[in-house]
Design brief:
There is one protein chain. The chain has 119 residues and is α/β, with parallel strands linked by helices. It has one domain: Sugar-phosphate isomerase, RpiB/LacA/LacB (Ribose 5-phosphate Isomerase B, Chain: A), CATH 3.40.1400. It has a five-stranded parallel β-sheet, with helices on both faces. Helix 1 links the parallel strand 1 and strand 2. 43% of the residues are buried. InterPro entries: DUF2620. Pfam families: DUF2620 (PF10941).
Amino acid sequence: MIQILTGGVGKAEVARTVEQLALDGVEIALSSDMDAAMKLRAGQASYFLGTCHTGAGASLGVLVGLMGKAACHTFGRSVPTEAEVKALLAEGTKVFGFAIDQIDTATPVIARAIAAHAG
């Protein structure tokens, strides 16, 4: 089972978007940044999707500090491609950030790539 945690200002909307995808083996839960970092470090969660108004980094600030920059990536206001997300997953990225106005487009790309990567 893959557990994706969501945080930031759009965490409920991200969770709903992932739930609507009905991806096999994917569980979604709302989280605070600090709780997510602790769960990821302890192996109690698999990935984190964080949102902020600009996607410039505030969505991941705590996680970058506690997990390290290598485990985190923000797409900012851009919409990632499946190839970009797959490459980041292959490099070990566990934490993804993006702007709240990209939830409808970025969330499905990231969530589907995570499900395919783990499957």
